[in-house]
Amino acid sequence: MNADRVADLTRAKNRTFGVPTGVRVLMCAVGFVLAGCASGPGANPRDPLESMNRGIYEFNDAVDSAFLRPVATAYNNVTPRPVRTGVNNFFSNLSDISSVINNLLQIKPKEAVETFFRVGVNTLMGLGGVLDVASEMGLEPHREDFGQTLGRWGMPTGPYLVLPILGPSTLRDTASLRADTLVNPVYNVEHIRSRNSLLLLNAVDTRAGLLRAGKVLDEAALDKYSFTRDVYLQKRRNDVYDGSPPDEDAPAEPEVPAAKP
Q1: Distance CA 176, CA 6 (A)
Q2: Where are the alpha helices (DSSP H) in the chain?
Q3: Does a structural domain hold residue 261?
Q4: Does residue 33 form part of some domain?
Q5: Residues of the domain holding 166
Q6: How many separate domains does the chain show?
Q7: With 90 as the cut, is the pLDDT of residue 119 above it?
Q8: Is residue 39 situated within a structural domain?
Q9: With 80 as the cut, is the pLDDT of residue 97 above it?
Q10: Can you tell me the mean pLDDT for 16-26?
Q11: For residues 133 and 127, is the Cβ–Cβ distance under 8 A?
């Protein structure tokens, strides 16, 4: 199983749907719960709210089975591959804007400059991002989000959370969702119908690109909830430390990684 594809599904859901009112209410509720919450005997210390999380996970899985997966399958079947590639490139180019800002906030000037030029090249020469001209020129993406930025500067992950519709997260990543949506141009589209159409297209395209990974997960994991949780937490840790996390068992683990040369 490709762990990166499973983790990317969760990140893409966050980027696609933003932070609806229900999630903001959940964040407040979780804050009150955590104040008096303690892990029971044998409980995973990273997942003290496992009972609640499993219930939300089952709800999300039902929504995916009833709506997202069938629509994504139909989209894959009727939409030509070049069109699907263009749609994916377009939304990836928009997400690179957030990466520019977060590379700057993490004091990664080289990555910030490369990502900035990547956005400029794809926007101007790639028909608004539909064509990925930048990759052909050797300008590779440097994906960063506000959750990674908070982690780089020392904020702990907090407990694992499963958000309605959005899926796997942590308290830190949930707190950063609003900042990610603020810099996404789609959310600044004033025409409501157009904005909702773009969000729906992004959601369907994202889910369509992960149909194969979802099938492998269904066949390989005895406990899909635990597997998804562990993959997500490991992937996010690797993201914060740029693929070289310190030993979790080491004493006095540094929270802030050294800047890239």
Answers
A1: 20
A2: 3-17, 21-35, 50-63, 69-78, 81-105, 109-125, 133-136, 146-152, 171-182, 192-208, 211-220, 224-240
A3: no
A4: no
A5: 3-26+48-240
A6: 1
A7: yes
A8: no
A9: yes
A10: 46
A11: no
